[in-house]
């Protein structure tokens, strides 16, 4: 389908867009294919509403997106509602209330739209599809590994196989700074230097702070084997050692099931993982980030989850071949041909021709035949 | 999955609800099954955003839901946005702008959520799923018939076959009142009497108004054959006669393709069809209304469309048998069993048992075996 793209952009608010044919159908198909992978592993789908009271929507992990959440007055209750900017807090609410009596671990999945007040400098979108899983009530490295590998399997199911898993420990930097009793403003300076990955600044500030391990861990970032060896060799205070050992256990559990998966480890990265309590993950494809997740608290329960970004997956998935389009003149029946995989398009007036209906085939007797150019 | 339903209802605003397992997965599956039927007939999917500027959202047919539309200030543009209460105005915008250059008729489909400021006395829901089609740029009775029959076919695809089609002519009553030059307040009194289907009041007021055909047409409502005969026999002014003839042509086109379909005709019903310009439809199942649609103007183009209500369809569709759940002990691989239709649920710690994971099967060697009670 051709489109007349540019002149009408201003019809929609910035960061809000129409998905046109064939992309809208492709996105829906890949969301359902990913959810089918989750379902096959026992993840049961929930569908929370787009709007709910802001106090429940912004509780727990929802606090991370409070500034990005559209607010609306509910004329019925006179209370403020939020338009969800993330689905995880809603799943946590469902797990803690309506599914409180279901045995743990609880495996839940979801798919739907989220909305954000503003785009970011990197991504202007203000409405994004999400498809994800939450594994609630399991605290083991096996649980983290299951969730990360389900992301890989879901992407493979839609043809995205060139994927790398980045493992993060967002609690590591705070643990090292706590152990060295580093306080503001030095703490903020170090955080900024780490965020910039400025090795010279980190080295100088970490020495000043009495947290030299930060320098070693910044340098350790890279392919998992080398990074794990460097982590193992680093001189870490007990809390940081526990964090490192846990990451090693999660990576070992992933390796046991997916020996060929490309894994990197970034011990001091923490940006954007504000509510995580353990190992976090990012899945990358050739064109960028495809999913993000990790360990957190779902209410008061240990949990791990992953959110895939179907819009990013759509850009990386190979397009399906379009179905052949069969022209039906008035009175011709298409049921058998639809069952055989044709899209049928019926003429509704004498003005409708195979060409105007963008058909690739017409019927010769009962047999579809390609239209000659 | 058991749920702990009542104590937590107040956590969500009135009319907004969570869909739990297995209903959320069932609803998604039936939406995709219905969209697959539309796609097989050449309807290509679009996905407009949930939010857009209110002036485009409330244009055309959108005016009918203006009072039901949540408004939000866009902090980027400082303009007002609306949270869609209906999808048809958005599809009309897409057809008129980005798809303006695609040959007509244009067949588009969509699925998504809509939100409304308040529930109605009959239906308290404020978020509802919609799945629909729009056939834009075709003015024939064949077009109306195609859209109505696609609704029937989509419902059949999800197992809802006990369906009746109610055909309405929402322009008939205004045409009769216009022809008789009936003005307020008599016009409003007659409309209210028709809405109540109060035959005695209608007869008295219609006689006073000089529009006696209204009495005959009110009595004509019922199974299509009898109603069409009564319409044919009625003494109608020219505009009303054209409306009646068009409805007869649409019904004939439907009958030609679906001779067994139960069709009723209600010549004077108009309530809730505020923007329709020709024949309108309601599809009913045993539990109530499942879809609504009809002819309207998409921008300046003749169009006909249908919206199915997946929440209502879900209540009427037979539940699928749950998939067997196979317990996987650590180290057991489930890929082959998932491919064979099992849901596999992996133990993540020694606490996870087949019973706690609600499994129906365990592996005996490589073979799934039902768990004895």
UniProtKB/TrEMBL annotation, chains A, B:
InterPro entries in the record: aa-tRNA-synth_II/BPL/LPL (IPR045864), HisRS-like_core (IPR041715), HisRS/HisZ (IPR004516), HisZ (IPR004517)
Give the pathway annotation.
Answer: Amino-acid biosynthesis; L-histidine biosynthesis; L-histidine from 5-phospho-alpha-D-ribose 1-diphosphate: step 1/9
- One GO BP annotation of this record: histidyl-tRNA aminoacylation
A Pfam family cross-referenced in the UniProt record is tRNA-synt_His
Compartments where located: Cytoplasm
User: Keyword annotations for this protein?
Assistant: Amino-acid biosynthesis, Cytoplasm, Glycosyltransferase, Histidine biosynthesis, Transferase
User: Which residues are in the Class II Histidinyl-tRNA synthetase (HisRS)-like catalytic core domain?
Assistant: 15-313
Record-level GO cellular component terms: cytoplasm
Q: Which GO terms describe its molecular function?
A: glycosyltransferase activity; histidine-tRNA ligase activity
Record-linked HAMAP family: HisZ
Query: What function is annotated for this protein?
Result: Required for the first step of histidine biosynthesis. May allow the feedback regulation of ATP phosphoribosyltransferase activity by histidine.
The entry describes its oligomerization and partners as: Heteromultimer composed of HisG and HisZ subunits.
Task: Name the family the entry cites.
Answer: Belongs to the class-II aminoacyl-tRNA synthetase family. HisZ subfamily.
Extra facts: This function is generally fulfilled by the C-terminal part of HisG, which is missing in some bacteria such as this one.
**In its UniProt entry, what is this protein called?**
ATP phosphoribosyltransferase regulatory subunit
């Amino acid at each position: 389908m051709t489109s007349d793209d540019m002149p009408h952009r201003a019809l929609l608010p910035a960061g809000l867009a129409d998905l046109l044919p064939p992309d809208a159908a492709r996105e829906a198909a890949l969301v359902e294919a990913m959810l089918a992978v989750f379902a096959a592993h026992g993840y049961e789908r929930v569908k929370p509403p787009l709007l709910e009271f802001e106090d429940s929507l912004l509780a727990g992990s929802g606090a991370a997106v409070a500034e990005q959440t559209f607010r609306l007055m509910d004329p019925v209750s006179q209370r403020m509602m939020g338009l969800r900017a993330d689905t995880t807090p809603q799943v946590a609410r469902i797990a803690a209330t309506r599914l409180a009596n279901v045995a743990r671990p609880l495996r839940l999945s979801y798919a739907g739209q989220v909305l954000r007040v503003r785009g970011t400098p990197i991504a202007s979108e203000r409405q994004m599809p999400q498809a994800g899983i939450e594994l609630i009530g399991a605290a083991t490295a096996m649980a983290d590994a299951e969730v990360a590998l389900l992301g890989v399997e879901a992407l493979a199911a839609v043809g995205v196989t060139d994927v790398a898993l980045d493992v993060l420990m967002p609690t590591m930097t705070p643990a090292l700074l706590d152990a060295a009793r580093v306080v503001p403003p030095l703490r903020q300076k170090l955080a900024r230097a780490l965020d910039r990955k400025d090795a010279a600044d980190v080295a100088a500030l970490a020495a000043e702070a009495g947290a030299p391990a930060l320098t070693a861990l910044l340098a350790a970032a890279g392919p998992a084997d080398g990074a794990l060896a460097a982590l193992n060799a680093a001189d870490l205070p007990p809390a940081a050692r526990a964090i490192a050992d846990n990451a090693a256990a999660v990576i070992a559990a992933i390796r046991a099931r997916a020996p060929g998966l490309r894994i990197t480890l970034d011990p001091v990265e923490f940006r954007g993982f504000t509510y995580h309590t353990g190992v976090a993950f990012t899945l990358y494809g050739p064109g960028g980030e495809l999913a993000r997740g990790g360990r957190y608290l779902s209410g008061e329960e240990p949990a791990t989850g992953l959110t895939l970004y179907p819009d990013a997956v759509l850009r990386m998935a190979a397009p399906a071949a379009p179905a052949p389009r069969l022209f039906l003149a008035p009175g011709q029946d298409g049921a058998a041909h639809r069952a055989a995989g044709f899209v049928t398009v019926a003429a509704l007036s004498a003005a409708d021709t195979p060409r105007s209906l963008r058909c690739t085939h017409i019927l010769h007797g009962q047999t579809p035949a390609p239209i000659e150019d």
